[in-house]
Amino acid sequence: MKLFKHRSCFIIMPMAVSGCFISCSAQEPFGTNLLKPEKEIVLPAVKGRIDHMDINLKARIVYVAALGNNSLEAVSLTDGKIIHSIHGLDEPQGVGYIPQRQEIIVANGGSGDCYFYNANSFEKVGTLHLSSDADDIRYDSAGKRIYVGYGEGGIAVIDADTHKQIGDVKLPAHPESFQIDKKLNLLFVNLPDAHMVASVDLTRMQIINKWVRNAPTANFPMALDETHHRVMIGYRRPARLVVLDGKTGKEISINSMVGDADDLYYDSQTTEICVSGGDGYINLFRKSATNTYDQIANISTRSGARTSLFVPQLKIFVLAARAVSGKPASLLIYRTDQ
After folding, report:
1. How far is the CA of 255 from the CAs of 86, 187, 269, 317, in angstroms?
2. Residue-range domains of the chain with CATH
């Protein structure tokens, strides 16, 4: 492990003993009125695992990284069908839409290449090579910076206008989901192989805090309450939703949740957390009067459907369901009750 020459705070966070930790996947469905199925968009030619998604809000097009299919699918929410497919990718994992440039960026896990496409013509307009395993993507529209997790421990900072790498965050393990707190100028990142959540100073591009825990493990999805600086983390072993204070790393809340979670979202309007898991459920949690989080829904979906996209502007939740048991791959569209 590379040594970092910077200030670090190491905190071992004990497992909370309060609360009921019965697996959410063993629960009966409830709260189904909070997310109502609206429509299903079939992706007939898509095979294998589906990874992350992003949206072109103006055109109402969802971009789907079809990892197992080595393709990017552009899906019209208006027309309810695929309008374009880009084939020949190498394990596409992350995808982002850059509205100012009307471009799509796709991160390829196999080659490490990040491809840029014109969102109107789907013509490739740029390539940036990272060492390996290009993964999750975040876009800062104010700074016009794209952040891409990659390799055995790094987040590349890319200028959206030039497609050039302008910075690099060194990490002790491969990054999974990460989120940017613009008010604190911090980036929070899940490092499951290091049993760690790290906070990164975006001015210095260095880790300033490491919050380590040995249980639960496998922290993949993450969301952020930027108003209250709370970091919401989904662990897979065992399946737990853990909420941390983003300034101190202190544990605020811990709940059992759906297994095999890969995406997690926070809605600042409703103070609700939404988690999608491959065990075949969506869980909703709501902030309580005591500032903890209570589970308010367990919604049955489809086995293996673990990646999703929450679009608060359209009041929809998009769940990617891969092809299983004779059913074709689909985007399952749910409408929120707000």
Report:
1. 40, 24, 21, 22
2. 10-336 (2.130.10.10)
